[in-house]
Design brief:
There is one protein chain. By secondary structure, the chain is α+β, with helices and mostly antiparallel strands. Among the domains are: 227-314, Alpha Horseshoe (Serine Threonine Protein Phosphatase 5, Tetratricopeptide repeat), CATH 1.25.40; 408-599, Sandwich (Jelly Rolls). 58% of the residues lie in helices and 10% in strands. The chain is built from 28 helices and nine strands. It has helices at 7-21, 25-33, 37-40, 43-55, 59-72, 77-89, 93-106, 111-123, 127-140, 145-157, 161-174, 179-191, 195-208, 213-225, 229-242, 247-259, 268-276, 281-293, 297-311, 315-327, 331-344, 349-361, 365-378, 383-395, 400-404, 407-410, 422-433, 461-478, and strands at residues 412-415, 445-450, 496-513, 523-530, 543-545, 560-562, 568-573, 578-580, 589-599. Strands 1-7-4-9-3-2 form a six-stranded antiparallel β-sheet. Strands 6-5-8 form a three-stranded antiparallel β-sheet, with no helix packed on it. Helix 13 (195-208) packs antiparallel against helix 14 (213-225), helix 14 packs parallel to helix 16 and helix 16 packs parallel to helix 18 (281-293). The longest helix is centred in the C-terminal third of the chain and has 18 residues, at 461-478.
């Protein structure tokens, strides 16, 4: 046990804590460092030190300080409460719950402790613990908005979205300034395909402020959702002017601008932010991902070299730099960089995958094979190395290509049984959703537009009918496939599927899809909704399988070609290379696509 601090020492700690609450973290640190050693090493001093470290994002160091304080003061409820909340922030849910249970046992009359326990238990998936804690908190203080808001979080995690919305609204009725509940309600409404209502709630949260930056970012997302694109761009830029390291705003802006015809400006926000925060590892990682996504390989190569000099040869930096060099034709240098990285990280799946890609492009499929196979061993669900193996084994005339890429069996056309006029009505509905000027730079289409968000999440009755038809037709078709425990697609086959991303594409004349795969899917698709007459015969606008990524520099013909037909859905493994031929017509080519995962 530690000796009590003097009143003067306690006043000094309280003054520093007040300074921290006033957002003067740097000044608070200076004053803390000037305290006598016996004060800094006292449990109260270690507690304050942990809070200061948290303010600077140094969570592991804050944890050490909390644990040192708890060794000296194991019955301090405030320490256990803050320690539990820190563990929750660090993603250690079960330990967070244990710490908060200790806090509430030591001080059962502290209502915020029960609410914090409910929030942490919800995040940890321990719903019964959360429900009991929140029920106790609400019984003790039914007029406190925070308890109802936390119960809303729990119900949302349970999938009870209508109940969650009611609970958020109850919290707001109790406290109109409950910005977090307004934010959570706006997020839920957006997921429920009610973007205008969500936007109104987000703007109300900002009016009641101060709101977290995530609320301003949510507002910008919603402005884009409802077609107010100039305001969305202005919103993202305002966030970045205030918070240069706000990654969500950066990434959203970089992907939105090319669709509005301003692709040359897509990475400008990063350029300004990197000048202001040149040592930010997270910012560099985001900038490199965005440059790769929009295929700006010149900028990617330059940034890769600059990032390596500033933050070191981290795997993500080195991979990005090598990927850019390879796509610019400098395969030898890319291969050398990745081999150096493998020496330090021999079991890094993405390094093996990218090295395999570079070796194929350099004309050495045999050397590529070992790295692609190793990548599949390290991450069997990643579709990219399997896609590379379809190319490698084809180039090597290896019979395993036919086993892995059985185009006759695994390219599966399914004709949907829709009512007359269904697809005409669906085409009208989808055309109204295509409001962008140009294609997303990070996606496969060229010469067209793509809808925002997950199409299958929309509440539109027509979309819901389509989802039900697709669901049953695909699951019925999958049941016809054989079992093969060694096959990357067939081994994951289940009785049901969950949809991942879903979207609509509208291609105009001369539009097409480059050859690509869906790296994070399992099964991918194309559903034809409306077609110009020119694509219903011959190869114009047809879907071709087996032609690999142009970056590999290969001239391989298609293994299978499917002619589109309205109402026809084609499903196939996500690692199958696929793309479409251009077409010429005054009428657009309108499709829907989705990725699916097996439901276990």
């Amino acid at each position: 046990m530690s000796s009590p601090l003097s009143p003067v020492d306690l006043q000094a700690l309280q003054a520093i804590q007040a300074q921290l609450r006033a957002s003067d973290a740097l000044g608070a640190v200076d004053r803390f460092d000037a305290l006598p050693v016996h004060v800094r090493d006292h449990p109260n001093g270690l507690f304050l030190r942990a809070l200061l470290l948290q303010a600077f994002g140094r969570l592991p160091d804050a944890r050490q300080s909390y644990e040192a304080a708890l060794e000296l003061a194991p019955d301090h409820p405030g320490l256990w409460l803050s320690y539990g909340n820190l563990l929750d922030d660090m993603g250690e849910g079960d330990k967070a719950v244990e710490a908060l249970q200790r806090a509430t046992a030591l001080r059962p009359d502290h209502n915020d402790g029960w609410i914090d326990l409910g929030i942490a238990a919800t995040a940890a998936g321990r719903f019964e613990v959360a429900e009991a804690a929140l029920a106790r908190a609400i019984r003790a203080a039914p007029a406190v908005a925070r308890g109802w808001a936390a119960l809303g979080l729990l119900e949302r995690q349970r999938g009870n979205t209508d109940t969650a919305a009611q609970l958020y609204r109850r919290a707001i009725d109790l406290d109109a300034g409950d910005v977090r509940s307004r934010h959570n309600l706006a997020t839920l409404l957006r997921e429920e395909d009610r973007p205008q209502e969500a936007l109104e709630e987000a703007e109300e949260a900002l009016r009641h402020g101060p709101a977290p930056p995530e609320t301003a970012t949510l507002r910008a997302h919603l402005l884009a959702d409802v077609g107010r694109h100039e305001e969305a761009v202005a919103g993202y830029r305002d966030i970045l002017a205030r918070i240069p390291e706000h990654l969500d705003a950066h990434e959203s802006l970089a992907l939105l601008l090319p669709q509005l015809g301003f692709g040359a400006q897509a990475l400008d926000g990063y350029r300004a932010a990197l000048r202001a925060r040149p040592g930010s590892v997270a910012l560099w990682g985001s900038a490199l991902r965005s440059a790769f996504a929009i295929h700006d390989y010149v900028q990617l190569a330059a940034w890769g070299q600059e990032a390596e000099a500033l933050v070191g040869p981290r795997p993500d930096v080195r991979i990005a730099r090598a990927a850019a060099l390879s796509r610019m034709g400098n395969h030898d240098r890319a291969i050398a960089l990745l081999r150096e990285l493998l020496d330090a990280a021999p079991d890094h799946a993405r390094v093996h995958q990218h090295l395999a890609h570079c070796l194929i492009a350099a004309g050495d499929p045999k050397a590529a094979e070992a790295h692609a196979l190793r990548a599949t061993e390290l991450d069997p669900t990643d579709q990219a190395p399997w896609a590379l193996l379809t190319v490698i084994w084809r180039l090597l005339d290896d019979s395993r290509e036919a086993w892995l890429a059985d185009y006759e069996r695994l390219v599966m056309p399914v004709d949907l049984d829709a009512a007359p006029g269904f697809f005409d009505e669906l085409a009208d509905r989808l055309n109204a959703m295509h409001v962008m000027r140009d294609h997303p730079a990070e996606q496969s289409l060229r010469g067209g537009t793509q809808t925002r968000g997950n199409l299958f999440d929309r509440r539109d009755p027509l979309i819901r009918r389509l989802v039900a038809q697709v669901h049953s037709a695909v699951e019925r078709r999958l049941r016809e496939l054989p079992d093969d425990p060694t096959h990357p697609f067939l081994s994951r086959k289940a009785d049901a599927i969950d949809f991942g991303g879903s979207w609509s594409v509208r291609l105009r004349s001369d539009g097409f899809h480059i050859n690509h795969i869906h790296q994070f899917g399992w099964m991918s698709s194309a559903l034809y909704v409306s077609l110009p007459p020119e694509v219903c015969d011959g190869e114009a606008g047809a879907l071709a399988f087996g032609i690999p990524d142009a970056a590999l520099g290969l001239n391989l013909p298609a293994r299978r070609v499917e002619t589109p037909q309205v109402g026809r859905l084609i499903v196939f493994p996500s690692y199958f290379w696929h793309g479409t031929a251009p077409f010429e017509s005054a009428q657009p080519r309108l499709t829907i696509a989705f990725d699916a995962l097996p439901k276990n």
